[in-house]
Amino acid sequence: MATANPASNSGSSPIEWKTIVEAHERIRPRIHHTPVLTSESLDHLANAHLFFKCENLQKTGSFKIRGATNAIFSLTDEEARRGVVTHSSGNHAAAVACAAAWRGTTAAIVMPKNAPRVKCRAVESYGGKITFCEPVVTARTETAARIQAETGAVMIHPYDDDRIIAGQATAAKELAEDVPELDAVLTPVSGGGLLSGTCLGAKGTWPTVRVYGGEPERADDAYRSWKTGTLQSLESSDTIADGLRASLAPRTFAILQKHLDGILLVSEEEIVSAMKLIWERMKIVIEPSSAVALAPLLRPGGLRELALPDRGSQVTSPRIGVILSGGNVELNW
Amino acid sequence: MATANPASNSGSSPIEWKTIVEAHERIRPRIHHTPVLTSESLDHLANAHLFFKCENLQKTGSFKIRGATNAIFSLTDEEARRGVVTHSSGNHAAAVACAAAWRGTTAAIVMPKNAPRVKCRAVESYGGKITFCEPVVTARTETAARIQAETGAVMIHPYDDDRIIAGQATAAKELAEDVPELDAVLTPVSGGGLLSGTCLGAKGTWPTVRVYGGEPERADDAYRSWKTGTLQSLESSDTIADGLRASLAPRTFAILQKHLDGILLVSEEEIVSAMKLIWERMKIVIEPSSAVALAPLLRPGGLRELALPDRGSQVTSPRIGVILSGGNVELNW
User: Fold this and answer.
1) In the sheet that A36-37 helps form, which strands lie side by side, from edge to edge?
2) Angle, alpha carbons A129-A135-A137 (nearest 5°)
3) Domains along chain A?
4) What is the tens place of the pLDDT at every residue in B26-41?
């Protein structure tokens, strides 16, 4: 199955297939091999066989622990002694704090002062040290850079980092190993760590699989970048999918340009509706960002947007993997 | 492991171990072998190793499909042709409708006219035919008896039926097979089908295991029956655990008297708190009734209420199975 391996064949991507396999071996003892769940009623609605990779059931409640663990356990002992630093208002913050605790080092986390309390509590529960900053991107990066300069801590960027991308790639690798003959895999896209990793991890395991990103209309920078071939920025976003408010980095965009099959935009209503269906029918808690990967499949003609290859006389439904990226929500009761 | 088999050794219970094994074989091709999930943070709170048997992820969203499938697939062809009838406002209704559809027969379901819309929709989605009645117990049983007399349909009682109890026993049998050396298993108790089945299924697989029921203070008939040794009735109940408003039958009470190790009452606040913890920490949707099995373990001294045998110099935490009975809730958003 390694004949069309995008990771090993890619000239522009420095992430070889071997790197992803090594990342998987490195993190496997510490993370969950998350289950793949199915739902007859959602299959019926989507007119497809859906295979949900449940990263909401992953340690720290999201796939982010894969990349963070790979990055932090790739450090030399000397680097690890200096501690790590990152900036994030969400799941990457908790993942870095948790992985740093596993490695026995310190994690400095820069968070916007309006970050949800539940996210702050998660970081603190893993022993991460929070520094609050103004809720704008420049304040985050400047504060993190200042801490890095003062302490010598190693920066663990949320997605503009090959170790992170290789770690996130292991979710799709596991999915494609557990569920053979997938026609397509969908993930949400924000900074592109999960989506670019999924391109490498899924196609590296199963070369003919198509990979698509789901993105909120209200945070459509990846779609615009993909369409125009030029990296676009995101000024601001108020999408309910609070994990998808970052924009692509050059590193993730380059991988997507080479390997991605498309990006599908979804409305806020479609996100909420898909999220509710998963809670009700599958009895699992996902955050809105996760629903963005399923939402395109539930609308009329959604399946045709994937433009899957004609399967000729084959009349079976397509087999589609959906990566449910996380389950961290604040319950207001 | 069959030396102290409560099912086969029981004089008063007509349910032999062989009956449970046969039930499992009968239903296995149609139901999910549900996963057992764990949570480090809940282990920490309970000071025990908890193993959650996720019947909320079961077909129709609850364990009830086990008993219903066993009962309906135990019918002769002649019986099955006559159709089945039951009365239930909840998960048993959907389970009977679903299992009847699998068997290719009809299901008449008597439901109180104030039954939640979501429960009615579930019954209808499986092709069950609903007859509404006044929301009192006598109206339910009388209406079901009338339909039975008119149509010749076979009554599938929610719990006062050996085929149902043997079916429900398979959840604990699976759990005890998947997780060896359990010290105790907890389930919610209402009519006692799940709890009596759990006594037989768990102790039949692992003879030294203790079995306990969790029950809302506001629907404490099983506790009072257990304490007094005389079957007590439940006048009415407004507990949030809407699946636990029935009372024991002579058949289930007899099994509990012989094999149960205790019943633990929980307050409404403890139910809501346990439910929220499971949603937040484990990222799964459970209904309030399910939380009743965990709630006793989360209060100070909760573990001591189980009065587990002294393990001497052994200092490891006890290993406790918790059966999460269902996940059918109405989401108000």
Assistant:
1) A36-37, A49-54, A319-324, A184-188, A210-216, A262-266
2) 95
3) 6-60+162-324 (3.40.50.1100), 64-155 (3.40.50.1100)
4) 999 999 999 999 999 9
Angstrom distance (rounded) from CA B239 to CA B252? 22
Give A78→chain B minimum CA distance, Å: 30
Tell me if chain B has a CB within 8 Å of the CB of A282: yes
Q: Rounded to an integer, what distance in angstroms lies between the CA atom of residue A122 and that of residue A24?
A: 25
Q: Which residues pair with B216 in a beta bridge?
A: B266
pLDDT tens-digit profile of B98-150? 999 999 999 999 998 888 888 899 999 999 999 999 888 789 899 999 999 99
CB distance A37–B56 less than 8 Å?
no
The span from the CA of B96 to the CA of B110, in Å, is 11
Q: How many CA atoms, within 13 angstroms, populate the side-chain half-sphere of residue B56?
A: 33
Closest CA relative to residue B326, chosen from B32, B126, B78, B50: B32
Chain B neighbors of A57, CB-CB under 8 A: 37, 282-284
Judged by a CB distance cut-off of 8 A, whether residue A327 touches chain B is: yes
Cα-based distances in Å from A69 to A27, A262, B37, B77, B141: 6, 29, 22, 57, 58
- Total Cβ atoms within 10 A of residue B303: 19
Radius of gyration of chain B (CA): 19
